[in-house]
Structures are given as structure tokens and as C-alpha cells.
Specification:
single chain; about 270 residues; mainly alpha; 13 helices
């Protein structure tokens, strides 16, 4: 028996998908480069970025945080491609498992650093501390809920939860862009409560964009949601209740109308 070797078709992306992927990768460029420079410094390379005493005292958490965040944000960008989900579902699932672990590691190390690293008031006030703690915990919860949702075949909740978790993780990119813009406009770096406010606003902006994306791109049309809700309602009804909803002349039980007197041809006479 001769079997033909079938090659998998090439992954073809639409123009809009290339645009979305390119924008996300460019948006993540500065934090990724800055993080890699920090990792190289902690590994014994030349010092390029300003010295970070906290990283030198406990290099493992920040190293894990940087690497897992890069993995989650860069590799996770490919999960936004509908063509990957349709043409390579196995690759989509494999990437999803990897970034789910990476996202949890990123959030856990972020929580550890927020709580145990010593920050001056100029770098982290009480409001920024609690926002970081809440969002880090929320990111872990969203990833876990996304895994539970896809195992229950709830594709919409799975996608929505991962988009929200991704928006939280991309906070560093938005904060970097806003920080650079502030320095260009004002001429100095924002510090103290102003810095806290800018960083919190960056997360608010990311989550707002995520909600717009979820409602415009992920949520199924109203007609499809109505059909899904009707089918779910019918499936949830007991058999007797569903059958009793039928007109009497369509009753499957002969005892309900043994003479057939409720048939429309008798009712019209």
C-alpha cells in the first residue's frame, strides 16, 4: 500500500493580520529590548542601562519576569491571527499552552517584586502598589478562567479572558510610550504621584482598548447569540416540558387526543 506524503499548506495571512501583528511587535519593541539588555547585564555582560540595586540583590525574579513577559507578549501576538486558528489549530493550542504558563510566571514574579522589592516613594506610591497587586492577581485569574472556558468549549469567554490578560501584560509597553512622550513634552521624567498616575492610566487605557476589541471583534453577532441561547434553552428543558409545549394536534402521545379531534381540519369545521 502506497501512501502519499501530504505536505501541510502554507500559512497564509491576510493584509490586516500582517498589520495587526506588525503593530503589536513594534509596540513591544522598546520594553523587549530594555528587558533583554537588563538580562544580559545580570548575566555578567557590560552595563548599558542605569544600575538597578534591586535587580542586583535578587536577580532571579526580575530575570524570570522579563523572559516570561517577552514570551507572553511577543509569541502571544500570533494568537490574534484568525488564519492561525483556522489553518493551524494544533499550533494555536500549543502556543496557547506555552503563553498561559509564561503569563502566570510573569504575573507571579511581578507580584513578588512589587511586594518584596524596596521602592522609593518617587518610583512607587501606595496607589501604584495596590494597582499592581490587583492587576497581577487578575491576570493570573483571567488566564486560569480562559483555560477553563476553552475546556468547556466556550470560545468567546476564552478569547475575551486572554485579551484582557494580554492587555494587562502590555501595560509596560504603554507605560514606556507615555513616559517617553512625557519626557519629550515636559523635558523631565515624571516622578512620585505623577508617575504613579501615568502608569495606572496606561493600564486603564489598555483595558479600555481590550474591551472595545472584545465587543467589536470577538463577540458573535446578535442573531448567532439568539440562536445559541434558544438552543441552550431547549437543551436545558426537560423532555416532558418540551413535549408539552407542542400544540395538542402535534402531541406524540395518542392518549392526549385519541380521536384526533384537535387536528386543524376538524377545528376549521
Amino acid at each position: 500500500m502506497i501512501t502519499a506524503n501530504r505536505k501541510a499548506p502554507k500559512l497564509r495571512l491576510g493584509k490586516s493580520e500582517w498589520v495587526v501583528l506588525g503593530l503589536i511587535l513594534v509596540y513591544s519593541f522598546i520594553p523587549v529590548i530594555g528587558g533583554l539588555i537588563r538580562v544580559l547585564e545580570l548575566a555578567g555582560g557590560p552595563q548599558i542601562a542605569p544600575e538597578n540595586a534591586r535587580a542586583l540583590l535578587a536577580p532571579l525574579p526580575i530575570t524570570l519576569h522579563i523572559l516570561s513577559s517577552i514570551l507572553f507578549c511577543v509569541v502571544g501576538a500570533f494568537q490574534f491571527l484568525p488564519s492561525l486558528r483556522r489553518q493551524r489549530p494544533a499550533a494555536h493550542r500549543a502556543i496557547g499552552r506555552v503563553i498561559a504558563v509564561a503569563g502566570c510566571v510573569s504575573a507571579l514574579t511581578g507580584l513578588w517584586m512589587t511586594h518584596f522589592y524596596v521602592f522609593s516613594d518617587a518610583l512607587q506610591g501606595i496607589s501604584l502598589y495596590w494597582v499592581r497587586m490587583v492587576l497581577g492577581t487578575a491576570m493570573i485569574g483571567l488566564i486560569i478562567w480562559a483555560v477553563i472556558a476553552i475546556r468547556s468549549r466556550n470560545v468567546f469567554q476564552h478569547g475575551a479572558s486572554m485579551v484582557r490578560a494580554y492587555a494587562i501584560a502590555q501595560g509596560a509597553s504603554t507605560q514606556t510610550v507615555m513616559g517617553i512622550a512625557w519626557i519629550i513634552v515636559v523635558g523631565s521624567e515624571a516622578m512620585g504621584p505623577l508617575r504613579d498616575g501615568l502608569m495606572i492610566f496606561a493600564w486603564v487605557l489598555d483595558l479600555l482598548v481590550a474591551e472595545i476589541f472584545i465587543r467589536s471583534m470577538l463577540r458573535p453577532p446578535k442573531s448567532r447569540r439568539k440562536k445559541q441561547s434558544q438552543s441552550a434553552l431547549l437543551q436545558s428543558k426537560p423532555r416532558n416540558e418540551t413535549l408539552n409545549d407542542l400544540p395538542k394536534w402535534q402531541s406524540p402521545y395518542p392518549s392526549v387526543d385519541p380521536l384526533g379531534l384537535h387536528h386543524p381540519k376538524f377545528l376549521c369545521t
